[in-house]
Amino acid sequence: MNPTPEVLAMLDPRCAAVLERLYAEAENQPPPDLFEGAGDGLETVPVGAAFTAEQTRALDDQFMTLEKDQAAFCYLQARATRARTVVEFGTSFGLSTIWLAAAVRDNGGGVVIGTERVARKAEQARVNLREAGLEQYVDIRLGDARETLRDLDGPVDLLLNDGFPDVALDVHRVVTPALRPGALVITDNVGLMPDHYGPYLAFLRDPANGFISVQLPFHGGTEVSVRISPSPEI
């Protein structure tokens, strides 16, 4: 998929300036030693294996970002669905969070509930959101998303499932009861790691679970799913 020219132009100049800086920093950051020569390194974890503590720590200082076109797509989907409550699994330094918070603000207000397990990343994300003028629209929850997202009241309009693949289905199951009919679930990296996401994709692509799903050619494959009905007990 060819990149869209000047995609940041859809945002206000203050947000765009922060994102330009962050994308430049991400582009210039070398991969961690444990994942040398493998992009962000996620695809090097053996199929079916959880990340080791050492591998997880190796990603603690890494930008884990959506590409600009992917992030712009998320912004547009949030605008199209008039999203007021968005959940993000995997905030990192806040690039995608800025896009989502801008959409919520431009929809008239609401909240992006972000999740991050690394304290210094969460704090820097808050700094970046403050610089972008979006701090009031974001609630970043520090810790394991499988726990920090358990008290969602709903209705949730959009879930960006963009954290570690070995827990993607667990996080999805936690958030699903709060998703309204018509809510979107957007998942990055599924095309780069189809085997790692196998059980997760099988769940989303089975209409018996209350979703319909399609893969789009962002970043090697991004899954976009719609909640079509209340799902069975999960």
How would you describe the shape?
A: globular
Secondary structure: helix percent: 25-40%
Taken in chain order, the helices and strands follow as HHHEHEHEHEHEHEE
CATH level-four homologous superfamily name of the largest domain: Vaccinia Virus protein VP39
Q: Which structural category fits the helices and strands? A: alpha/beta
Q: Strand order across the biggest sheet?
A: 3-2-1-4-5-7-6
Say how many strands there are: 7
CATH topology of the largest domain: Rossmann fold
Please describe the biggest sheet, giving its number of strands, its sense, and whether it closes into a barrel: 7 strands, mixed
Which range does the strand content fall in? Answer: 15-25%
| Rg for CA atoms | 16 Å
Query: Which blocks of ≥5 consecutive residues have pLDDT under 50?
Result: 35-39
Organism: Pseudonocardia eucalypti
GO biological process, one term: methylation
Keywords: Methyltransferase, S-adenosyl-L-methionine, Transferase
Pfam family, one: Methyltransf_24
Structure write-up:
The structure is a single chain. Helix content is 33%, strand content 18%. The relative contact order is 0.14. About 2% of the residues have low confidence. The protein has eight helices and seven strands, in the order αααβαβαβαβαβαββ. It is globular, with a radius of gyration of 16 Å. With 234 residues, it is of the alpha/beta class. α1 runs antiparallel to α4 and α3 runs parallel beside α4. It has two domains: 43 residues, no CATH class; 160 residues, Vaccinia Virus protein VP39 (Rossmann fold).
